[in-house]
Amino acid sequence: MIDAMTTTYSRHLLKSVGDAVWVALALLHQANPNRDSFSVSEIVDKVKSESLTDKEDVTIYLHANQHCVANRAPNPARLRMLVDLGNSQRRLFCPGDAFDGNRNGRITPDCADLPDIYKPLLDWYGFWSAQRRHSSLANDPLLALRGTGKVIWSNEHADDYINNLRRENV
């Protein structure tokens, strides 16, 4: 695990601003496991404090606010790295999250594009996103209804049950 609170290692500029935003948000999630989301300004500040890119603040902001956000219309980037939770709050995109149908870009940085210090974030993300997906499925209220009412037709085939209901309502 990368200690996101410690910045004693050397700085590494990333090839793309999108990758810098993803790394910054992954570091924030990793350092604050009890928080579900972070503000766009927190992400921009983390990109800057980690010296992940030398691009201007406005460029970093645009990536955290729009270009990397899966559930916003692409303009122009099609990355699916973050999710907009409202009120300028973002979290990392997880497979299974809703996204704009015109977005078909990367979800994470390519491993080859990350300096060695940040490569463990990809393994962390795989575990983190699998945990989130499992947790969201377990807590889904619609999925929790699965199997309820099955005693109603437990002694007859579903088609027979429906046909009997139709005959009763005629």
What topology emerges from the helices and strands here?
Elements: H1 17-31, E1 38-39, H2 40-49, H3 57-67, E2 82-86, E3 89-92, H4 120-138, H5 158-168
Antiparallel strand pairs: 1-3, 2-3
Helix pairs in contact: 1-2, 1-3, 2-3
Structural features, described:
This protein has 170 residues and is mainly alpha-helical. It has one domain. It is 39% helix and 6% strand. It is built from 5 helices and 3 strands; from the N terminus they run αβααββαα. It has helices at 17-31, 40-49, 57-67, 120-138, 158-168, and strands at 38-39, 82-86, 89-92.
Give the gist of this structure.
With 170 residues, this protein is mainly alpha-helical. It has one domain.
Biggest sheet architecture: 3 strands, antiparallel
Q: Give the CA-CA distance, first to last residue.
A: 66 Å
Order of H and E elements: HEHHEEHH
Give the rounded overall mean pLDDT.
Answer: 86
Q: Helicity range of the residues? A: 25-40%
What's the β-strand tally?
3
Low-pLDDT parts are: 4-10
Computed Rg: 22 Å
Strand content: 5-15%
Number of domains: 1
Shape: elongated
Structural class: mainly alpha
Q: Taking strands numbered 1, 2, ... along the chain, how are they ordered across the largest sheet? A: 1-3-2
**Number of helices in the DSSP assignment:** 5
